[in-house]
Amino acid sequence: MFTQLSLKYRLSIVFGGVIIATVILFLILFSLHARGRIKIEAESAFGLAVNFVENALSRVARPIAPRKELEGLIQQAQTLRHVRVWIENDQQEVSFTNKIEAAPAWFSKLLAPEIKKAHIPLLDYGHAHESIEIEASARDEIAEIWDEIEWFALGALGALLLLLSVVYFLVGRTLAPLEMHVEALTRLDQGHRFIILPRSGSPEFKIISDRINALSKTLQALDDENHHLIQKMILVQDEERKDIARDLHDDIGPFLFKARVELGALRKKLVASGDNRSLAQDCDKIDQSIELLQKANRRLLGRLRPAALDEMGLEGALEALGQSWRSAHPDIALSMGLTLEDVTLDEKISLTIFRIVQEALANIYRHSKAQTASVNLKMITDKSGDNIEIAIIDDGCGIGEDFREGMGLRGLRERIYGVSGDMKIKNLSSGGAKLIARIPLKQNLQKDLSISSAQA
Q1: What pLDDT score does 392 carry?
Q2: What pLDDT does 374 receive?
Q3: Does 8 lie in the same domain as 151?
Q4: Per-residue pLDDT tens for 337-357?
Q5: DSSP letter assigned to residue 391
Q6: Quick one: which of 108, 181, 243, 345 is 20 to 30 A from 20 by CA?
Q7: Is the same domain home to 335 and 253?
Q8: What pairs with residue 389 in β-bridges?
Q9: How many Å apart are CA 322 and CA 364, to the nearest integer?
Q10: Does 383 fall in a domain?
Q11: What is the pTM of this model?
Q12: Are 389 and 380 in contact (CB under 8 A)?
């Protein structure tokens, strides 16, 4: 548990533990020293009390000492510290003090020295069955020492709290740059690159700040270079797909069509002759195979370059895409809201939007286990200008904690980055997930104008 605490708390606990151990050690040494002091003082007080009583008795009249005179002697002896003096068989017993509260029994037992007693008979003074008893007592001294320990412990506790507060504050101030460094590294790990840390704290922390700032610049440069290379790769890939799609459409498509026409003519001849029905059936099988090949060719064309974009525009292509998914997966209710009638989009943005919807629907149908899904496109205007917002929502299982973006979503992010847009994916509180992408029109218009000017 201790290792899971922050460094600030751990240092505070260590300092507090050292201080508490020091105070306890001091109290132990103080108590051991006090034991010897108590013994010396008790023995000295005991001897003084015995001498006092004996000297006082020597002045008392004999053979019969008045009772009042003996009581006066006892009262004088009561003023001595560290002793108890009383007349045996007389209920009046004198303790050394009542002003100081007694220490705890365990503490008194720990420090109390060996008790010395003196017995002085009063037979010679006319009191045959009585005697003066003198007993050494360290109760008052032990109580005073206990009182000193209490005050010292109280003062040590106050000093400990004050010192811990100061240590906690100073450690917090000293380690404040470290928390800032952790936050900066976390942001770098999350993809943020524009990080500039101030040079604060001790020289070691200043060096760390400089290294993190340099790392941020290096990562930013690498990200910019990677984005640039990926954008070039996407452009080259799109152009290559476009060329391949054109070749498939212009070259392979006509040959397949011609093969089916010639095969159909051959079949008619065979049927007309009436003698080659088995060959006619073989022609039917070959025709079916060529038909499947044509369908595969059309699907491949759609993946390489959605022809619907050129033929029907973005909205028509998206409607056709949605209809194809509805036909293939009737168990998921798909709704599409496309409100871009008055917007003219260039080829790059249209293709990007189409790919966003295509990839999102593919993920919904493959992974979400949803019952409903919706695709909504609309124009929004904010401080940055006009933007196209693409919102795709499903009521499926949502995004798991161990979710990691695959190549499809990474490719989408790069496409969106290439048109100065952004994309966010999050879970909904009601269940399911939501993908929101925004593509600014103004920046892309400026890009197109700059490209046109450069080409001119």
Answers
A1: 92
A2: 92
A3: yes
A4: 887 766 778 888 888 888 889
A5: E
A6: 108
A7: no
A8: 378, 438
A9: 12
A10: yes
A11: 0.47
A12: yes
